[in-house]
């Protein structure tokens, strides 16, 4: 299977330009599965909820998914892309999986970062794994990475590959993904953007360096800190299926789930 990422500098508040950019870069990509950044058409910084709502779109009949459907069909490619999703009165920071058949699946970002909490509704989709031609594909969005439960849940649901659209601003994620892949024995495609967004006295600098990491923590492909980039690698997804670590250990079977106490009730009630 050929998996890849596309890295570019999303233009703040200009969905038409961004759609065109994704179309141009997707047309130059030869892959079975490709991941675009988080909020790939709207940009990341908003000044009000109304502004975010104006840049959000329905997944059923919005223009971005229409463009991606056309390309997915033409190039027989699965596309995972971040999008501000309008659903009734809610706006979600979502990622959509667009299939060559035109079918779509959606993941809605669970862990909202910083001011995202002012614009978006926390995701209600849960962490799900989708079948892509026999390969099991999970999705999380950007800041979900810092909660190891996100990747663990996807891995325990059988994900071979985790698609990770991102607009990273902290410097830790790219290296942390090596550990996430090692501890879960999965492939990770982190598609980050680069560039700077400035709005109403606020500024975010996005860190680029998109990465594909293998199930033993190998960095299989990497983008630059700044600059457009398309990277595609050939993988054998079955490398993610065997969780054995040497003769005596298994990443999943050795877990002691009766001893893990993950609610945090002791410290959260202090
Ligand atoms: C982020 O979650 N976009 C930092």
Features:
single chain, about 270 residues, alpha/beta, Nitrilase/N-carbamoyl-D-aminoacid amidohydrolase, six-stranded mixed sheet, about 30% strand, binds acetamide
Please tell me about this protein's structure.
The chain is of the alpha/beta class and 270 residues long. Strands 5-4-3-2-1-14 form a six-stranded mixed β-sheet. A six-stranded mixed β-sheet has the order 6-7-8-9-12-13, covered by helices on one side. A two-stranded antiparallel ribbon has the order 10-11. 23% of the residues lie in helices and 30% in strands. The mean pLDDT is 97. The chain has a single domain, classed as Nitrilase/N-carbamoyl-D-aminoacid amidohydrolase, CATH 3.60.110. Acetamide (ACM) binds next to loops. Acetamide binds at residues 38, 113, 142-143, 167-169.
- Sheet-strand content, in percent, reads 25-35%
| CATH topology heading | Nitrilase/N-carbamoyl-D-aminoacid amidohydrolase
Oligomer: single chain
Low-confidence sequence ranges: none
Helical fraction equals 10-25%
Mean pLDDT across all residues, rounded? 97
CATH H-level superfamily title: Carbon-nitrogen hydrolase
CATH architecture: 4-Layer Sandwich
Number of helices: 7
Radius of gyration: 18 Å
Per CATH, the class reads Alpha Beta
The total strand number stands at 16
Bound ligands, named by name, code or SMILES: acetamide
Distance separating the two termini: 49 Å
